[in-house]
Amino acid sequence: MKMKPTSDVKTKTDTYIYGTYKRNPLTIMRAHGSWVWDDAGKKYLDFFSGLAVSGIGHNLPAVVKAVQTQVKRLMHTSNLYYTAPAADLAEQLCQRSFAAKVFFCNSGAEANEAAIKLIRKNGYPQGRHEIIVFENSFHGRTLGALAATAQPKFHEGFGPLPAGFPVAKMNRIDSVQALIGPKTAGILIEPVQGEGGIHPATREFLHALRALTREHHLVLAFDGVQCSLGRTGDLFSYQTYGVEPDLLTLAKGLGGGMPIGALLAAPAFSEVLKPGDHGTTFGGNPVCCAAALAVLKLLTPAMLKHVKQQGQDLMKELRAIIAGATFVKELRGMGLMIGMELTIPGAPFVEACRAKGLLINCTQGNVLRFLPPLALSVPERRAALKILKEVLRQPVPVA
Ligand code: PLP
What we know:
Elements: H1 9-16, E1 28-32, E2 35-38, E3 43-46, H2 49-52, H3 61-73, H4 84-95, E4 101-105, H5 108-123, E5 130-134, H6 143-148, H7 152-155, E6 167-168, H8 173-177, E7 184-189, E8 192-193, E9 199-200, H9 203-215, E10 219-223, H10 237-241, E11 247-250, E12 261-265, H11 286-298, H12 301-322, E13 328-334, E14 337-342, H13 347-355, E15 358-359, E16 361-363, E17 367-370, H14 378-393
Parallel strand pairs: 3-15, 5-6, 5-7, 7-10, 10-11
Antiparallel strand pairs: 1-2, 2-3, 4-12, 8-9, 11-12, 13-14, 14-17, 16-17
Helix pairs in contact: 3-11, 4-11, 12-14
Bound molecules: pyridoxal-5'-phosphate (PLP).
């Protein structure tokens, strides 16, 4: 029997939307910059940026204007025709990176699927199909991206998954070397693991991976879905490391809130996928591309410098407020992508922050994850720290 229609958003959601997400008890009505407002009008400082999607900030006027203008002009054509926003965005992405070609899609998982298919197609003539991935990685929920995600908890109940994703250890080049064989086609890595608990690769490790992939003629693919587009203080995280990959996947922050993903390919890999090899109906949607163009315009050298400074200051201040907190195991990260690993569950801290008007997240059960908006102001950073200080100084909550 159907339920009587209800005006309560939470009830309606829990009744009719598939329960694949554990939602916070918060209905967000509107957002602007670093802030969101709930249905009672209470405002929250968003230190999570909608999972790094509203990367620079929420509803940025330039992005809103670009979307409005494009929506009125043209919303969709399919990839059977040419459109200016997709062409302009692809040009921008190539001009500002190592890439020669871009494939547009709609999400991070799809961008990684495209990377996986490209790596396999490239290795096909030599019978190479294996892609080395890393413990604690996260590449998305579609079956290929899921198989590449080396976290058994996400695999449970969905097997058999596509084979050919041997798992190496992050920052251990010997563990990668040990897995390379005649079937190895490439390596897929997040330069800074996000979902896995904010684990940055070391500089030495990424440089060693680059050397190793050159030596063995393997494709080196970086998943920059969470850690690119300014997060580490450079436009792309590979620039922070000074290591150019062959492939780079993007999504999340690219559209500033609009759904868009992209696979960027170096010149040597620009002819691997041929007409008919891959596709997606909405890929390169003109409205999403217009939004992404506006986002790229906002990611200026001054903005990236701001991120580096804010990241350094935030890290320093976080270190100061956790001094003596025995339940904090480690603080790590790069730029404005920071994780605080606890020896106890993190959920109560997330709730305590939310009650005080600060949105953060906990990943892996005990890593508090901070992904503040890149345009975070100094007073906003101080406001967040004040709340974090209060919450972290409280008696240790019981989960
Ligand atoms: N890759 C990384 C590094 C991610 O963090 C995520 C999502 O959290 C994905 C891929 C999947 O992106 P999407 O949820 O847009 O499919």
